[in-house]
Description:
The protein has twelve helices and 18 strands. It is of the alpha/beta class. It has two domains: 2-109, Enolase-like, N-terminal domain (Enolase-like, domain 1, 2-Layer Sandwich), CATH 3.30.390; 115-336, Alpha-Beta Barrel (TIM Barrel), CATH 3.20.20.120. The protein has an eight-stranded parallel sheet. A three-stranded antiparallel sheet has the order 1-4-5. Strands 6-17-16 form a three-stranded antiparallel sheet, with no helix packed on it. Strand 4 (26-35) and strand 5 (38-44) form a beta hairpin.
Amino acid sequence: MKLTWRRQIVRPRHRFATSQWGVDEKETLQVELAHDGLVGWGEIVPSTLYGQTVESSEAALVQAGDLLGDDPFTLEPILTRLRTAFDDQRAVLDGLDAALHDWVGKRLGVPVWKLLGLARPQKQTTFTIGVADPELTRVKIDEALAAGFTALKIKVGVPDDHQTLAYIRTRFDGPLFLDANQAWSPDEAPQRIRALAQYRPTLIEQPLPREQWQHLAELCQLGVAPIFADESCERPADVLRLRGYVDGVNIKFTKCGGIREALRMITLARAFDLQIMLGCFVCSSLAIAPALTLASLVDYADLDGALLLAEDPYEGITRDGGIISLGDQPGLGVTPRAPR
Length: 340
């Protein structure tokens, strides 16, 4: 197999920010696996939160080619070798995992969701309203509602929380997901969460710093809303650790390493009666497609990373209001968009 890659920059329509950070543009890597006349595509979306950068990803890719072998159908042995070599660079594993699955699906002439024995991906996604000044926040909310989104995810953990949420509830009565991105300490979180009850949240995500996950159980007992772990839950072993401490987990492919590892996390979460959300970062549709492939297995999808962009460089995922779906195209079902 021949492995190549290139850098690309994607830009959100509006600055995207949380209680901890913000981005005006995101640099990712498009990877290509060529073999026997076919090309499999994947996207690497590195996050410094997990020790990943474009540079560290490229350093791993330089070495990864020698571990691929010459049979893309041997997915599990290939990805086991890659996990052993690059366990700390799981965004790279995600991109390669996607490209391998894309290649196999194309070779067999079936979509990856059918290859895995799953239902056609068709799922309501939340649309995320990032942290911004009140005027821009209202613009974002108005745009989301005009576009027909039927579930909103709001980044909280900043002084304007109540102003933002009160405005939303005057306009929108649907599911409201609140994401604090580690904003609060264990001492202040109970009071903050009780104050959010009036907005009827569907769930509250990662209210505490990720290393203080032991205190999440106390927040579940408040009964305000289900408490989900995001930054505290990276890979399958974390699902085991979090059993009894949270109501649900947010699985992101950049954190865990792709389809194969996400399936392990989903199996574990179901065994422990944990709810499951699929999440993402700012990215293109090429990075969303692998997660959307598994959407029929989970409770919630927050797969709006490409929907936040001013221009998505890939096409193939369709949207009807708040519902996103994949069709019958072989592989992951997305292709580079033709230049305008």
